[in-house]
Write a structure and sequence with these properties.
single chain; alpha/beta; 6 helices; 49% helix; binds 5-O-phosphono-beta-D-ribofuranose
Length: 176
Amino acid sequence: MKRETKATGARVAILMGSDSDLPIMQKCLDTLRDFGVPADAHVMSTHRSPHAVAQYASRAEEQGIEVLICAAGGAAHLAGVVAAHSALPVLGVPMPSKHLSGVDSLYSTVQMPGGVPVATFAIGEAGATNAALFAIQVLARKDNSLREKLAAHKHKLACGVRDQDAVLQEHLKRES
Ligand code: RP5
C-alpha cells in the first residue's frame, strides 16, 4: 500500500517500529508537547513495512520535518534505514527488548557504518525524553522562544535537586 505524506506543520517526526514502543515513546511525545513543538508520530517498521519507511524518510524534509526520531527494539534497524534515506538529523532511541533488555537495540542502533550517522540515546524512557530535548535544542538554534523554554527547563532541574538536598540536610540534622 502506498503511504501518502502530507505536510502537517510538524517540525519533528517520531517513528516507532511497533505500537508496543508507544508506552515508552509517550515520554518523547509529552516532552515535545510541553515545549509546544508540533510533531508527527507513526508506527512503521524496517522489517514489516520497509516501503513505508523508505517513502516517509525520503519525503520528510520536503514535508517540513527538521529532525527525525526513530525508536525500535531488538534488531533495531529503523533509525539506520531512515538515516540512509534522509540527510536530516536522525536520533535513535533503543527500546528495551524481551530477551536482551535492549542491549541488542542499543548496539544495532548505535553501530552505524561511517558516513551514515545516527545520534543514539539511552535505552528506554530516559532516551525517549532526551531525544525530544535534543531535537528541541536543534530547533532552538533558530528559535528564541524555545531557547527560553530550555533555560527554564534547566532551572527547574536545578531547583528539583536543590529541594532534594534541602530534604536530605533536614533528615541528617534530625538523625544527628
Ligand atoms: C521492533 O520489534 C519494535 O520496534 C519493537 O520494539 C519490537 C517488538 O515489536 P512487537 O513484536 O511488539 O510488534 O521492530
